[in-house]
Amino acid sequence: MASNDSDVARPVIGLPTYVERTVFGTWDTVSAVLPHNYVAMVERAGGIPVLLPPAGTARPELVARLDGLVLTGGADVDPARYGAPPQQTPGYTRADRDDSEFELFRLARAAELPVLAVCRGLQLVNVALGGTLIQHLPDRVGHEDHSGGPGSFTVTTVVTTPGSRVAAIAGPRVRAHCHHHQAIDRLAPDLIATAHAADGTIEAAETDTGPFLVGVQWHPEANAADDRLIRAMVAAAAARREERVP
After folding, report:
1. CATH number of domain containing 86
2. Is 119 annotated in the active site?
3. Does residue 168 lie within any of the structural domains?
4. Which of 136, 177, 181, 219 is catalytic?
5. Entry pTM
6. Residue 193 domain-assigned?
7. pLDDT one-digit tens code per residue, 21-77
């Protein structure tokens, strides 16, 4: 099928997936999956979503086919990645995702791809750049307001930092859909904390130089009424694509 000019101009956005046991139709099997809200979010913003299973270490040939990257939510980052022993707390890790996505992020930054990092994605970015994580946030803040119930989000008011990229995109306050029991502890040297919850939890971080890199601890894909973050990232990816395509 021939593609039209608008299809050619749309940026290709990578979305890492999970490997989990799933049940659908008559099947109960291990699958590479991702909540469809991520796909719908990228489509609404004008991007072409491409699902990326954790198939070993990410390779440059893959990143060369992408115009932007959304680092999706999911399992905890292995504490060994930031030199900490695991605590006996809720949560789980996925070594296959860590192996794939740490290298995927490194290659994306080297290729100057715009990156939007969501929940686990922000935590991964912070660790990849030299930061650490709070392994169980309720132990630090004394409540579970960030985690919501099983399979649900809680809405938290987040205050952004004036003059930051996330504030320019999302405004001074965000009604953030949250579901996380971990958060940034020591912020990576290359990152700036640009949004906080009332209890002081870092809810967004970004760089002030280089290509688009914004990480949010909340889930923008959970709120179809507010696509400002993904639209900003897709716009940056489209601009990069135009620069590269003759």
Report:
1. 3.40.50.880
2. yes
3. no
4. 219
5. 0.94
6. no
7. 999 999 999 999 999 999 999 999 999 999 999 999 999 999 999 999 999 999 999
